[in-house]
Amino acid sequence: MSQPELEVAALGVAGGAVPAARRIGVYVCHCGGNISDYVDVAKVVESVQGDGDVAVARTAMFACSDASQQDMIDDIQKNQLDGLVVASCSPKLHTYTFRAVATRAGLNPYEYSQVNIREQCSWIHRDDHEGATAKAIGLVQAGIARTRLTEPLEPIVVETTPKTLVIGGGIAGLRAAVGLADIGLQVVVVERELTLGGWVGRFGELYPYGKDGHALIAGLVAEIKKRPAITVLTGADVVGKSGSFGNYDVEVRVGGPGAGSISVRVGSIIVATGFDSYQPEAGEFGYGINGVMTLPEFTDLLDRSTGPLVHDGKPVRSVVYVYCVGSRQASDVEGANEYCSRFCCTAAVHASVRAAGLDAMARQFHLYRDMRTYGKYETIYTRSRELGSVYLRFPDDTPPAVARGEDGRLVVTVRDLLTDGEELAIPADLVVLVTGMVPRKNEELVGVLKLPLGSDGFFNEIHPKLRPVETVVGGVLIAGACQGPKSSAESVASGLAAVTQSAAILRKGFAELDPLVATVDTDACTACGKCLDACPYGAIAMTSLDGREVAVISETGCKGCGGCVPMCPEDAIDLRGYTDAQIRDQIDSLLEVSVA
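The chain above was modelled as a monomer; its predicted structure follows.
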């Protein structure tokens, strides 16, 4: 036996079993230039080809393409690979894509690692190609180190309850309830108000097809009454949640604070709580002056009018619309809404078309920063101009000023960029502040469901394109304007997407969960309780084992966040798929410095 073989044998006896050699496939993606324009992907591949555990190392123009996926499957089967590393974009995009590749090739999907060399490397080091390449090499080596210590894992299988809780009785929630019932699921709708309908139920004609909001909601309510599978609770709030994915016990308070509550067991939850309309401060663009109103208030006036508009007993012959009120605010404003609310441009333009239909002689002026009647709604914008509306663009740093003139009429002063910055004073009978959507205050619900919020205050989906209605809380979905500004049609579409996801979870009667959860070494646990405080999902509890208290983690309740791991003073908790040993090896591989 040679000296190196003797050393390895000695290690096996003295230090424990030596890990068996692996056969890992590594694929480095060009991403069509997103990566390869700044990272030398060929050099990255070359750097890992000498690793004894790497059996295959290749580049791919688009690793996620069907052709590249098939190449990986062929390599895994031909070379008997037992590990897979793909260096490409964010794991948020394609973790499930490449897990599916591994599964189709007969490789356990949890022996796959994705390395992010796009967002974490090429996109942020565009001015340093050499440094970006060196960093990419380190990240890929770290991914190999993690994969070297992976082990085959099996999904956690749980039975599911074929019932869904829909929170919110607006158009998204009601349409979702009908869809769920039609695919054979029981549904409970919880609405905070005493009546169903939300914002759509308050309005008449809606863009772009002129459908009546009251009639739309009345039709949906009628459909719900036809379906015995749907139970509706109005004047109700969700105040508690326990259980785990597929089997949630939800506490619903019916009748307001201090009233009694009922418990409902459901397999999934769809949150469709809607939005609030921005409420201007007193004095903001003249708000508070008689004749200055928000867009919802003006829409209500249109709905109540059968002829030329009348306000405060006087005919309305001149209307001025001020856009972006409460949207796209400067970041230095406390609680600023920096986002564009999307729907309000089209809603205001549509309102002007309706107003022109009531009185063709009324003068209408639109003061905007940017006009965004996206998609097919451009035709409404064109129609508004054809009917006589005048559009004036004001600079970001000089918004219009609204005041009461000496003659008692409203006067709006604006600097128009379309006429070389000329300042205009426009007399008006009405000033309409085009207000956008803002997130609804739902602190209690957020606390109960542990829903993540984006920087804009709306609920956050996992990914806007690939998983647009799913949240990080398994089985809890979001739909409609609670996740961001949407039109009624877009809200319905997202509600139906949530129906599809619920069906995928519940129709089979069981679901498979990721096994990447935390585990407790009960021999090392001292029941200090620090992990209980660290878990944001309530997945850890104390139990009696052999006459002593130890921590136990619910596999179905754990989300694999790892927050409990560093809090344990005894190192008694580990995270499957991201074990201490794997993380240490990743760090060590990144710290290795080549000696010239």
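Residues 44 and 410 are 67 Å apart (CA to CA).
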